[in-house]
Amino acid sequence: MTSSSSPESEKGPPASRPLRRTPVREGPPRYAAVDVGTNSIRLLVVEAGPSGRLEPLLRLGDSCRLGQGLDAEGSISAEAEKRAGNTLTRFVRRARSLEPTAILVAATHALRSATNGTEVAERLGRAAGVPVQILSAEEEARLVYRAVREAFALEELAEPCLVMDIGGGSVEMARGEGGQVRAWQSLEVGCVRLSERFLLSDPPAAEEMALLEQHVEQRLDAHPELFPDLQAAAGVGGTLTALAALDLGLERYEASRVEGHWLSREAIRRWSEHLTGLSTSEREVLHAVGEGRADIIVAGCAVVSAVLKRSGMPGLVVSTQGLRYALARRLAEAGGAAVGSGPAPGSEPTSGPAGG
After folding, report:
1. Do the first three CATH levels of 19-137+323-334 and 147-318 match, i.e. the same topology?
2. pLDDT score for 143
3. Does CATH place domain 19-137+323-334 in 3.90.79.10?
């Protein structure tokens, strides 16, 4: 586990504070949150409704893979930084067109763990005109738990529960009870990191899969405090939303249908075996998977399967409401708005879910 203080941009406000402006637009306040992950960058723009409920106006995701090569090199490459910079700048520009009161950009594992993460965050923030805050692993785990906990009623997600975020560089897990995080861990078993380290054949060889699975199981076994007497499990991230879309047989990704979908261990096993037997190019034509996830979803499936096996849970409920939702709620609370939750309309790119 690693944590990092928030970098400060050379120009503009400190990274620990979101960019605030006085909107010209009249009406309810709007807030924009950007999640800069290892595999994807995601944008959410919300508007505070009359009851304080946050209504999503825009959701975008792009798999620009900021953390490509991070496992081997330990740093962010110039090429990956350029891709991420272009995406972040485009997303901030799009967010500004909706005149939000504040924009918050938060980065996770890739910039948290890279030797040059602070410098890259500063450059990305300067280019986009919004400071980039690097979240600690604990902040990330707690924020994801909050987003998922608020998405589901107690009868939909009983406690004690386990909430997992299958990212590109790391997997955050939080054990919740009484609406609070009682234990958390951030493990470096993200699907980009594992794919680059173990899955060198296409399709993956059986020996490669066995080594990957053993590696993940060993990491999970080191944290038994997460798993006793669980009543439910939930998960976010592109691997899980893609699996849900496949399981639902969706021709086009629809966030409103993916939200709350139950994935059994058997369904995950079945889809994992199917995807493992395909080449990357064959996975790319599956609309729910797409280009940005085709080469890493097999590793993601292995992680999900290992977590469910270790926890003894028969399956999990999938949520589309990950980190960016919690970030938007944080902005709304800071702005004096009440915070609510609800599934977003299906305005994700039709190429499928971005994540990680």
Report:
1. yes
2. 98
3. no
